[in-house]
TrEMBL record, chains A, B:
PANTHER family: ALLANTOATE AMIDOHYDROLASE, ALLANTOATE DEIMINASE-RELATED. Pfam families: Peptidase_M20. This is Uncharacterized protein. It comes from Lasiosphaeris hirsuta. Belongs to the peptidase M20A family. The keyword Cell division does not apply. InterPro entries: Amidase_Cbmase (IPR010158), Bact_exopeptidase_dim_dom (IPR036264), Peptidase_M20 (IPR002933). GO terms for molecular function: hydrolase activity, acting on carbon-nitrogen (but not peptide) bonds, in linear amidines.
Length: 456, 456
């Protein structure tokens, strides 16, 4: 793999980030082939299920703190150190590669994660780290000097697949998840390994406390695949992520009365599944009216016999919206809808009832206006205008959610083919990966420039 | 237990069934206390779950061909033999107790079953047999001579609970189920006992072939609890059962596309559960419009994760109506409804599809007009008018379905409290049991009289 050299057309001597005008910023080009070659090179560690005939047409199975994860981490440390970075590993294995700037101070980070789902793809998380490393290479080959340090951070166990807390180690860094709790977490599937025992085993139990105080970040930018269909459908290239949807998870239980399907007329039934079906339909209608989402992914019933009307149904309800207010209003609306369904379906002799249990509440996240502005300016620059970019709200959680609680943050989305993610067939074209990486590079440089201007 | 003696008020000497006018028929009274005492006496064999404080407030668990079933059968043989019956046991353990008449010929039977569900009650099947034995007692104490033989038949494994074919041995008798298949059937739950080995073990593997030719019946009347809520709701006492609903069972499979609940807008989904919910609602509406029933008792989905839109849903569909034509029309209607739902819900990129599998087809059964007329006349006589009786169609299968294929048949329904059956709490009041038994008694005598008139 060629590491590239500075283009002879570029200015000799050292480029200073705080002196870069639009024209000069545009000359800092990501090397698409190098980026993709390097990305697929790292997918030798934890290669997953094959879905196509080419070498690169497999998924990934790189569970957090596994041997494969250790090899990918070792590559990350070696590659960034070779590019002039100082490496810090904290007590959760979060790995911060920092390239010094003109002045001391917290670095502006590109961050994401190298772990994957057990049946995941080559882009979720991985693209964000690899684009960060490519950023370091472009800075190095162009001899760019930044005002403050810039860096790349690999967060541990974002997926929550092996150890069942998502965004685990950015959560510890932000002070929202106690480190003792995270360290003691056992792997799913009955194994006895814990986060701490696996960190020790692979040599990534660092000495630095995991904390936004011990390791402050000036800003956090995350390039990530969309994991949804919007950019592809709208034929756009970059999503400027303004925040993350609020969501709430509920378990709804409907109690009716078991009865024989043959001998019980409609007027004498309390059919828990019919009521639940009406609720699922109603949740869809109401969510659409509110500009929100409602989804049911789990439904169980009892007793579960062809000729017995179900007496009990439990189903999950996942509602999401860009703001907490909308989620509030939708929840109220649905509680009233479900009560109405229950009273309409209830016969006098056999009442139905419905109860809600709230399983999870996640407020809306609003990213920082400066970071959003910097991403917008960078996307505009890379794409030559507004047509191919859009503002979006992320539907899924990311390390940027926790990062945003302790430093200015935003995200950059690139298209996911067919909206598919957490699946071996997850795919983003090399062109789109490179566009995203270039927007990430510019965003970090523009933010560094912004800090420099504020300080001068 | 007193066996009763002829009432001194009744005519001395022998009553002849073919000479009984309305007034004399009405004098033949069922002894309610004796009937109920005897019924609860037999519930000592296979007593089930307790639901109330009184001795008789338990359910039943008397699985076919179990030790408890053998004891109930032995009681049946002893009791009917003591009442002057000849006993025949066929190769399926069906037990025919026949009281001779003036002339030779096939008997007019009261029939039902002594086996129960694993978590059943004291009335389903049991009432029909006990009312038959009470009928023999009333005939004996009143010294009634019938024109032709009358009898009581206990059919083996009606419930299909231990050996998984419902109405198994009336089905063999009717020639619809091959005896080899029935004999070889293994008990559910992994045991190695077969129908034949259990018949041998409890001493009920009879020598007579199981066949309507070897053991012809002149008619078959079955007193049974309704197992539904209609009589209780309408405050009526007797259901004159004109036949059994047609029913069909299907498995409907809806295929959509798994996707993330947070990142996939409604317009990009192919939500198999939302489509299935719309289908379940639509099946209810269409069935109501057709005067039919539609029910879903089983529903499974995959992958079954809170934040994943289900890509596949399978559900059972049970449709029933009094005639085959209605079931036909409803099936066509629903196939078109479900196709419409699938095309409305499908987005261009992600089509949904629906497929039907027919699991079971049971045509409508129409009972014999003479038997229906005889039951109507008897119910009229016992209830003193039309107000407390109604014609009905049975929603569930019974041995009378197979009996009706080979001899004139009808059924008599009495109220089920709260419509509950196949449950320990199944209950019919002593008054209602006695009314039903009296209608059964009169029906058998009236039918015997009808045969006698036809032959004279
Ligand atoms: Zn990710
Ligand atoms: Zn029954």
């Amino acid at each position: 793999m060629a590491f590239g050299t500075a283009s002879p057309r570029r200015a000799p001597g050292r480029l200073k980030s705080w002196e870069l005008d639009e024209a000069r910023l545009r000359q800092l080009k990501v090397n698409q082939n190098r980026l993709m070659d390097e990305l697929h090179h790292t997918c030798q560690w934890g290669t997953g299920e094959r879905w196509g005939p080419r070498d690169t047409e497999t998924g990934m199975r790189r569970l957090s703190l596994s041997d494969a994860d250790k090899e990918a981490r070792d590559w990350f440390v070696d590659a960034t150190r070779a590019l002039g970075c100082d490496i810090s590993v904290d007590a959760m294995g979060n790995t911060f590669a920092v390239r010094p700037g003109r002045e001391q101070g917290p670095a502006t980070f590109a961050g994401s994660h190298l772990d994957t789902q057990p049946s995941g793809g080559r882009y979720d998380g991985i693209l964000g780290i690899l684009a960060g490393v490519e950023m370091l290479r472009v800075l190095q080959e162009n001899r760019v000097e930044t005002a403050f340090p810039v860096g790349v951070v690999n967060w541990t166990n974002e997926e929550g697949a092996r150890f069942p807390i998502s965004m685990m180690s950015s959560g510890v860094w932000a002070g929202d998840i106690p480190i003792g709790h995270a360290h003691a977490l056992q792997e799913v599937g009955g194994g006895t390994a814990t986060v701490k025992s696996e960190l020790e085993r692979i040599g990534y139990l660092g000495l630095i406390p995991t904390s936004y105080e011990a390791m402050p970040m000036a800003a956090h930018f995350e390039l990530h695949i969309e994991q949804g269909p919007i950019l592809e459908k709208e034929e756009q290239k970059i999503g400027i992520v303004k925040g993350v949807q609020a969501y709430r998870w509920y378990t709804v239980e409907v109690i009716g009365q078991e009865a024989h399907t043959g001998t019980t007329p409609f007027g004498s039934r309390a059919d828990a599944l019919l009521a639940a079906s009406r609720m699922i339909c109603a949740s869809h209608t109401a969510a659409a009216d509110h500009g929100a989402l409602a989804s049911t992914g789990v439904l169980t019933l009892s007793p579960g016999s062809v000729n017995t009307i179900p007496g009990k149904v439990k189903f999950s309800l996942d509602i999401r919206a860009p703001s907490d207010n909308i989620v509030d209003r939708l929840e109220k609306h649905l509680k009233s809808d479900f009560d109405a369904i229950v009273s309409t379906e209830s016969t006098k002799a056999l009442p139905l009832s419905v109860t809600w249990r709230t399983d999870s509440v996640s407020p809306a996240i609003h990213f920082h206006k400066d970071c959003i502005a910097v991403v917008r300016a960078s996307a505009n620059s890379v794409l030559g205008g507004e047509a191919l970019l859009r503002e979006m709200v992320s539907g899924a959680g990311h390390d940027s959610v926790y990062a945003s609680r302790r430093c200015p943050t935003s995200m950059i989305f690139v298209p996911s083919r067919n909206g598919i993610s957490h699946n071996p067939k997850e795919y983003t074209s090399p062109e789109d990966c490179a566009i995203g990486a270039e927007v990430l590079l510019q965003s970090v440089l523009r933010y560094d420039g912004l800090r420099s201007n504020l300080n001068s």
